[in-house]
TrEMBL record:
PROSITE patterns: HELICASE_ATP_BIND_1, HELICASE_CTER. It catalyses: Couples ATP hydrolysis with the unwinding of duplex DNA by translocating in the 3'-5' direction; ATP + H2O = ADP + phosphate + H(+). Residues 353-515 form the Helicase ATP-binding domain. This is DNA 3'-5' helicase. GO terms for molecular function: 3'-5' DNA helicase activity; ATP binding; DNA binding; hydrolase activity. GO terms for cellular component: nucleotide-excision repair factor 3 complex; transcription factor TFIIH holo complex; transcription preinitiation complex. Residues 1-48, 251-275 are annotated as: Disordered. It is an enzyme of class 5 (isomerase). Its EC number is 5.6.2.4. It comes from Neoarthrinium moseri. Residues 17-31 have a biased composition (Low complexity). GO terms for biological process: nucleotide-excision repair; transcription initiation at RNA polymerase II promoter. The lineage of its organism: Eukaryota, Fungi, Dikarya, Ascomycota, Pezizomycotina.
Amino acid sequence: MPPKRKAASAVQGAVKSGRASAASTPGPATPRDLDSDDDDFGSPGQVDLPAEEDIQSAVDRFSLAHYQDQTVRGPVDAASRHFGNGRRDFSYLNLKPDHKDRPIWIDPQRGRIILENFSALAETAKDFLITVAEPLSRPTFLHEYSLTTHSLYAAISVGLQASDIIATLDRFSKTELPSSIRAFIANSTSAYGKVKLVIKNTKYYVESSDPEVLQKLLKDPVIGPCRVQGTDITTTTSNMQSVVIPGTSNAAGVQQVKPSDKSQEDVPPEQAQPENAMQALREDDDDDNSEAVHAFEIPDSAVETVQKRCLTIQFPILEEYDFRNDDRNANLEIDLKPNTQIRSYQEKSLSKMFGNGRAKSGIIVLPCGAGKTLVGITAACTIKKGCIVLCTSTMSAHQWRQEFLKWSNIHPKDITVFTAEKKDKFEGNTGIIVTTYPMVTQSGKRAYDSQKMMDFLTSREWGLMLLDEVHVVPANIFRKVSSHIKSHSKLGLTATLLREDDKIGDLNFLIGPKLYEANWMELSEQGHIAKVQCAEVWCPMTTEFYDEYLRTNDRGLKANLYIMNPRKIQACQFLINYHEQRGDKIIVFSDNVYALKEVALALGKAYICGATGNNERIRILENFMYNPNIKTVFLSKIGDTSLDLPEATCLIQISSHYGSRRQEAQRLGRILRAKRRNDEGFNAFFYSLVSKDTTEMYYSTKRQAFLVDQGYSFKVITQLAGMEQMEGLVFNSAQLRRELLQKVIVDTEAKRGMDDEDATDDLFYAKGRKRGVRRTAGTLGELSGGQDMAYIEQRKSANKSLKKNNKQSDFFKKHYRDIARNKANAQQ
Ligand SMILES: Nc1ncnc2c1ncn2[C@@H]1O[C@H](COP(=O)(O)OP(=O)(O)OP(=O)(O)O)[C@@H](O)[C@H]1O
């Protein structure tokens, strides 16, 4: 089916206005250059689209490297090695005379696009780039995007044509568009949309309106054998129709419940936004042509293989759901409530999903606290078929149900929760089930009612599958989910499409391409998420801690030393004090559960970790939210995601998971939804405390990479003015610091030998970790307890009893007395 041109009028509108503004900018840009419809490039006739070709040549064309310019490079000289010995010398790309007025430059080898964010055309160019390319980095002045086959497929799927993309990129580009990029765009997009994967009667079919394409697939050595013999069918399908737009400017194609006094027809036409892509679709979709479609069946087990292979041979398989023509599955009574207004970026993201009037599967990326839940609910209200929502925990499953009831008019009986405790089915023909990933993927024998519920889920077709927090779920879990549950469309939601293990690419074919990624800075400028001041506080190690840090080879002890560095604890105390006085509510994060407990107790604050019981968690969180005297709570990594504490306005991180960019972003997310974010001059604060000259510094820089790409800048604070003079500063004598050091060493050793009740929380003592022989340098004096070093038995049982006995010593007596006192204070 040919892509529809008008569907992309939002983007094209932006491009047009870009042309207009370019024409009005001073400088040598001529109207013909920037504003002319008489394009030099980009008319379909001039794009060198391949004619007939075999599968192998399609495979060869897949990589951008295939399109490299064959331009002769300049002579190799002494500086050449800095430019890949001439390979990265792009001086052959001639700048246009008016290049200063054009905002982008494109790397002909890697498809990277650099945008000058200070250009007068930046806004218009950004609107376009977000549609055709993937944002990589968006700090203040220069943005970086990447043209990929996936991003180009996404652009085509909202109705742009290769010629539009080429022409517009060329207009914005400082140099003539490299021929490698032109060919890459033309060829990557030429086969898009020719092959589809559809579900009919709970069976998967590969479908195309071009019989020759199907023949090619059937001849392919991987796809051919997957066909279920004797299942070929030919049907007719009607062309795209517009998604119903009730006329509200914020609808994004969503049917909203109308207030009773206002019928849909009452809405004056001027309220409809002309630049709304969905609106354009509605105008466009009167031509309702039918066409013949040919299909063959593939077994469930072959779906992923076929999807992967199709991607490799450049016939990307499209998962689209023509929900309005689905008469087989019952319609669900669901609309947004009349007072529900979705925000512009939520609308934009949904217009990418429903850009051509059908539901495309894919992933929407919005910052934490930007309202992914409402985006999911709006998608369900658009499709209006059975919907299954998968969450990461039982708590968030219940939250999702509540949000559905809050924002939509769904009948409470039509939305049920399937968790270990609750296994209700909806009563009507269709409905919504909210469940968790483990509930549907758990292997082994299930309880009777759980099995019955699973049979219910697997025996029917679902219109939409909403996948919350897609970034945390391993690919094999998705495989299980999709093989168990048949859904016509899938929408993944996340704030951080990041994995340190590079597995994120798997989501491309398991769910679909990234449909939309919002700009964090833009949303915070608009007040949808809080503005945050980020700072990295460098805490020097005390001499005795640093000596031990340098001496030991034990990674666990090293980590405990830089985390428990007394100067860091003092900085934490000082910052808590400072922000409590300002009226902030503070969350202190520590991945290391040992440090979490010790520091919380030392500072007399409450903490929550994996081992904290549910009732106690609720009690602590409620106190944090509603008790004006409880202003600080310590959280282990269980608080990283899905915790809604809009009261929190300040974060202090004392230990974290190595270089995890995702965790850093998720933690920052806990304050992005701060209630007070729209107060005049309000700022939230995010402090990361790191021990100077230790490996923690290296990890810290890595962790910040994602946020820096989103435009956040981290101030480095080397000294907290006034800290030394603070009254009641902990560990403020050499004796106390030495005692703390002893305790850290003893506890590290003791804990190594014991089963850790917080193993799920604690990265350094994860269960199953092998112990090796450890040899450390030391003196006899140290061994005998001189110089504040403690004697440590290496046998497990001895360690336990040593610790027990140690409780009787003066040091431990005092220590445990302090803990008890702090605990009592925290509970008051
Ligand atoms: N269009 C809207 N109008 C009013 N409030 C909204 C809108 N969209 C979202 N919100 C509110 O913003 C807050 C954050 O929403 P939500 O919990 O869905 O964020 P999230 O993106 O899922 O965050 P996280 O990634 O941290 O889970 C909620 O209180 C929600 O009610």
